[in-house]
Specification:
single chain, 197 residues
Amino acid sequence: MDVKTYATVVELCARFAGRLPDDVLDAVRSHYFGGEELIAESALLLGLAYDGVAITREEKELIRSVLDDPDNPDLDDIAVVEELPPPAYRFSPTGPADVPVPTRADAVLSEEAPRHGGRRLRRTWREPTGPDAAGGTWLYVLQVAPGSDELRAYSALSSRLWVVLHEKWQVEVVTEGSLLPPYQAAALTAAHQVWPL
């Protein structure tokens, strides 16, 4: 995969955070990072279509530009909208009183962050909105230096959470100073900095 395509994949993954289910987006990111582009493409297209995630015309063209087959008919199964709805989550710096503060995860991820160009690690509590909303979770946002590999950092931090703590809390990696999609911007606005202190 060339540099331009890789950058487009990173952008698409960031745009679909909070829109695609977490496990689907994790599969897309992991397979792209692992060099399994066809599996990643299938996960992305099927996830968008199955979960009814609408995309903009611009996003459709970005997806088309990274597909092995730009004329893949599965892309036509995805609804196109003029304007995206706001993020379906609300964020707060602290979780509910009955949810323990993840200090061990803070320590594990703070140790891993500098290895991947990390400059700041922040944590926020994420809760879905809407009438059937249930199931909040911790979300970590790692701000990295320009030029850092966001998919590599995502893979490393997510893996550490699982291997060391058996947790699947969410991780977002963003380049410091870049324009952020609404989901990451909202998460960062409410996040509490855990590293460096």
